[in-house]
Amino acid sequence: MKLVTFTHRNEPARIGIWENDTIVELESPSMLDFIRGGEVMLERARKTLNGKTARTFSEDEVTLLAPIPRPGKVLCSGLNYRSHVEENPSAKFLEDPRFFAKFPSVVIGPDAEIRHPGQKFLVDYEVELAVVIGREMPQGTPAHAVMDHVFGYTILNDVSARWIQFKDNNEMMGKNFDTFAPIGPCIVTADKIKDPSQLSLSLRLNGKVMQDGTNRDWCFPLPRLLEWLSMAMTLEPGDIISTGTPAGIGYFRKPQVFLKPGDVCELEIGPIGVLRNRVVAAEKA
After folding, report:
1. Does residue 285 carry a pLDDT above 60?
2. pLDDT, tens digit, 9 for 90 and up, residues 4-13
3. How far is the CA of 283 from the CAs of 33, 145, 276, in angstroms?
4. Do residues 45 and 15 make contact, with C-beta atoms less than 8 angstroms apart?
5. Element housing 211 (H / E)
6. What would the 3-class secondary structure string for 74-101 be?
7. CA-to-CA distance for 160 and 242, rounded, in angstroms?
8. In the 8-state DSSP scheme, what is residue 137?
9. How far apart are CA 210 and CA 216, in angstroms?
10. Cis peptide before 12 (omega within 30 of 0)
11. Rounded mean pLDDT of the chain?
12. CATH assignment of 74-281, given 3.40.30.10, 3.90.850.10, 3.40.50.150, 1.20.140.150?
């Protein structure tokens, strides 16, 4: 099922099932509480969907938020698509996965505005499949067991300030400007995506296709990525792990293409849907 976090008028945020053009409200304080509830909460959601007593809303009545507005950890895989390694003249294929972090405070939802800090920052886009952890994955979980800990999947736009990222190798700061982690529009539960390695993903900038790839191009399969992270840390319910981006980013295009105020990014992964965000000029302090 597709799960969303949404607001209706001035009411507090709540969660629901996105079915066709309708949002069916669920009884849970937050998406994180729902995820922690595991199969019990999923079964309740199925009964709610089949019942007739829950409140329902049409899509145009609600505002979708990031499915998990403040995830615990957001860990992003770098150089995990062969095509992306090949388009980067200074990159090489890695022996093991590599990751960097995005901070929870920079997460925004669908249709929220990406704040552009200025032309010199060379703001770029990256479409990525993101995995949502469903139950605690202890340190040292082996590859054959890691997929049992996956709750579902969503989309992440790894927005990056390339000038900062490549200046003195300052990836941490270049990836973490406010609003640089749009996530959404929903979480599709793992039972609906049996093999994420078969998914295709694309990014359109103002309607023009800039990235169009398939996860069959992964350098490291998803179990390998999760096992590698588990070597170092415990992953917890609601943590988000992205799996890298295919070729086509703006920095390596000829001529280069960077985001500017007024642009619209549309990221699409078939069963998940479209994550759309507009770019606006950041207000100066």
Report:
1. no
2. 999 999 999 9
3. 35, 46, 21
4. no
5. strand 208-214
6. EEEEECCEHHHHHHCCCCCCCCCCEEEE
7. 14
8. B
9. 18
10. no
11. 97
12. 3.90.850.10
